[in-house]
Amino acid sequence: MASDPTFDSQGRYVAVTRGVTVRVKPAYLPRQSDPESGRHVWAYEVTIENGGSETVQLLNRHWRITDGHGRVEIVDGPGVVGEQPVLQPGQRHTYASGCPLPTPSGIMVGHYEMVNEKGERFLVEIPAFSLDLPGGDRAVN
Question: Domain named ApaG: which ranges (predicted)?
Answer without folding.
Answer: 14-138
